[in-house]
Every structure is written in structure tokens, then in C-alpha cells.
TrEMBL record:
It is a multi-pass membrane protein. Residues 304-313 have a biased composition (Low complexity). Belongs to the anoctamin family. One of its GO terms (molecular function) is intracellularly calcium-gated chloride channel activity. The chain crosses the membrane at residues 82-105. Residues 293-313 are annotated as: Disordered. Residues 1-276 form the Anoctamin transmembrane domain. Pfam families: Anoctamin. Keywords: Membrane, Transmembrane, Transmembrane helix. This is Anoctamin. GO terms for cellular component: plasma membrane.
Length: 313
């Protein structure tokens, strides 16, 4: 934390995420996704004679022309791109709140580019019935849970939220933030510089500096444990860890409540599914009754033989 800029560590992470979301997701991926198939298509067309290609276009049907397009490699690259974007948006949303907006713009462009790519650049994929998206749903749930923990640590350890609250409610004489900056600065005796590390010009300010201040929570040089972590440091660390635990549990409870409140299947669709199941059961029961009735009519049970009286015999 001592190496972060004056604006805090969040600013550097924000700049990196801005470059990633704008440069990589919005520009690089979309350009490569539509540009690479077009280049492959141009190379394939250059290998075929133009006259022969015109004859083929006149004689072949639409499905036969589509066979000359690029092969469909599967949905794994598409899913992977969305998983990376979802991870970037959720895991570091506390440091770059505009990431969801850029992700929305990227997805709007992605839908149109994918539609054009699947229609004009690639062969039509074979449709396969699937119950859900499979392992990708598990990855999304795992990323969402990791994102809660990461955002809690980002807020607690890379911002001044917790130190300000601790100072305001524990160390401030009047319950305000007056004196907070002085509270965050520690003392250092310039005579304790190691040989070769002291300032080159000690009289640069016009007078000799004996004590300087730096941003950290450490004991002063005149204490029994100079330059060790102070009690304020451990109090703030405990508050940060407590914030992480509380933040994680609150967000998890809220997500579970919203998950319970909003069903996966809408109520009207669930009613239709229930009616469909009842109709299937009724139809099955009617078929079973019909089978039993036909069996009783077509295969009557044999009558027992009567024995003759002894007199007639």
C-alpha cells in the first residue's frame, strides 16, 4: 500500500480495467471475431477460379453453397469470451463501476457480429437439444461467489473507508474526521537512515530536518518498540477483516433472498407445465384402460368343463 499513488490503489486498477474492457473486449475481440473469418473466406475464394465460382453459384442450391463456408468449431470460444467478460465485470466492479456499461455495449455489438458471422461466414451448426448450458453455469456461479469476496477485500484494503470509520468512532475527539490525515502519518528520525540512504542535500529546505512523516501506522522512534506496527494498525486490520466477513454474508444472504424471490421458471409457464403433465398422465391412464378392455374382449377366459352324471355314462 505504500507504493500506491496519492489517489489510491483503485485508480491504477480502474485504468487497467478501462483498457481491458475498451481495448480488448470492445475492439480487439470484435475485430478479430469478424475479421479472421472474412480473411479465411477471401483466401478460399481466391483459390477457386472466378468463372467456375460463377457457374457454381448458378447451379448449386443454398445449402450446397453454404458447404464452402468456414467450418463451425463449436461454442466453447463464445462461452469462454463471455465468462472472461463476466469475471472482469463482477470481480473488479468496485474499482471500475463503468465496467457493466461497457460490457452491455460490447454484448450489443457482439450479438450483431455473431449473427452476421453465423449467417454469412460459417456453416450452419447442427442443432443439438440441451437441458441447460452445462458446466458453464457452475463456472458462472463460482465466479459470482468469488466476486463477492474479492470486492469485499478491494473495498476494505485499497480504500480509506475502514480507516476513516475507525478514526471517527474510536480516536476522533469530536466524532468527526478532523485530524484524520495527521493520524495516518507516522514519525521517522532522519538520523536512523542506513549509511548510503540518507538524503543527498540535508539542507534543501533551508534548515536541518530531524523528523519526517510518512503514511503508515507504526510506533514513533522514541517508543519502546520503534517502527513496529502500532495498536491502530491492528485495530484497523481487525476492522477490515470484520468488514469482509459482514459484507460477504450480507451479500450472500441478499443474493439467496433474491434467488428465492424470483423463481427460475415464471408462474404462468410452471402452471402450463403442470397442466401438460396432468394431461400426459390422463392420456397414459386412458391408454392403459383401453389395453385392459381390449384384452378382456379379445381373450375371454376359458369356461371349466362339466363332468357327466354317472347314470348317463
Amino acid at each position: 500500500m505504500e507504493e500506491c499513488a496519492h489517489a489510491g490503489c483503485l485508480m491504477e486498477l480502474c485504468i487497467q480495467l478501462c483498457i481491458t474492457m475498451l481495448g480488448k473486449q470492445l475492439i480487439q475481440n470484435n475485430l478479430f471475431e469478424i475479421g479472421v473469418p472474412k480473411l479465411k473466406k477471401m483466401l478460399r475464394q481466391r483459390k477457386i477460379d472466378k468463372k467456375h465460382q460463377e457457374e457454381l453459384n448458378k447451379t448449386l442450391h443454398r445449402h450446397e453453397k453454404d458447404h464452402f463456408l468456414g467450418p463451425f468449431v463449436g461454442l466453447n470460444p463464445e462461452y469462454m469470451e463471455m465468462i472472461i467478460q463476466f469475471g472482469m465485470v463482477t470481480v473488479f466492479v468496485a474499482s471500475f463501476p463503468l465496467a457493466p456499461l461497457f460490457a452491455l455495449l460490447n454484448n450489443i455489438i457482439e450479438i450483431r457480429l455473431d449473427a452476421k458471422k453465423f449467417v454469412t461466414e460459417l456453416r450452419r451448426p447442427i442443432a443439438v437439444r440441451a437441458k441447460d448450458i452445462g458446466i458453464w453455469y457452475t463456472l458462472l456461479r463460482g465466479l459470482s461467489k468469488v466476486a463477492v469476496i474479492v470486492n469485499a477485500f478491494v473495498i476494505a484494503f485499497t480504500s480509506d473507508l475502514i480507516p476513516r470509520l475507525v478514526y471517527q468512532y474510536m480516536y476522533s475527539p469530536d466524532g468527526t474526521l478532523h485530524g484524520f490525515v495527521n493520524h495516518t502519518l507516522s514519525y521517522f528520525n532522519v538520523s536512523h537512515f542506513q549509511p548510503g540512504t540518507e538524503p543527498m542535500e540535508p539542507m534543501h529546505l533551508g534548515y536541518k530536518v530531524e523528523v519526517c512523516r510518512y503514511k503508515d501506522y507504526r510506533d514513533p522512534p522514541w517508543s519502546a518498540t520503534p517502527y513496529e506496527f502500532s495498536r491502530e494498525f491492528w485495530a484497523i486490520l481487525a476492522a477490515r477483516l470484520a468488514f469482509v466477513i459482514v459484507f460477504q454474508n450480507v451479500v450472500m444472504l441478499m443474493s439467496d433472498f433474491v434467488d428465492w424471490l424470483i423463481p427460475d421458471i415464471p408462474k404462468d409457464i410452471s402452471i402450463q407445465i403442470h397442466k401438460e403433465r396432468n394431461l400426459i398422465v390422463e392420456l397414459f391412464m386412458k391408454q392403459e384402460r383401453g389395453k385392459k378392455y381390449r384384452n378382456t374382449i379379445g381373450d375371454p377366459s376359458p369356461q371349466p368343463l362339466r363332468s357327466r352324471p354317472s347314470s348317463q355314462a
